Amino acid sequence: MSTENMVPMGLDRKEIDDQILDLLRDGRNVPSNLADDLGVSRQYVQQRLQLLEAADYVRNIGRGVYELINDPRE
Question: Does 17 map to a domain?
Fold first, then answer.
């Protein structure tokens, strides 16, 4: 199993998803910037964004830019 897809020690998927949603509350963003801010791989953030998009929480507005459309925590 590749370590690229593993969650960093001390973090779980919900925590990462919450952090992604928090960052998207501040405005639109791309996976590479989110990954840098969170200290995880771009590929991992992309996977989480795809799942959040499938759940209709975020939307890819084009060219890999994502925005928050429905925060499930509210």
Answer: yes
- Give the domain extent around 50: 11-66
- Domain CATH code at residue 57: 1.10.10.10
Report yes or no: 39 and 16 within 8 Å, Cβ to Cβ: no
pLDDT tens digits, 8-41: 555 578 999 999 999 999 999 999 999 999 999 9
Query: At a CB cut-off of 8 Å and minimum separation 6, what does 40 contact?
Result: 7, 8, 11, 16
Q: At a CB cut-off of 8 Å and minimum separation 6, what does 55 contact? A: 72
Maximum distance among all Cα pairs of the chain, rounded to whole angstroms: 35
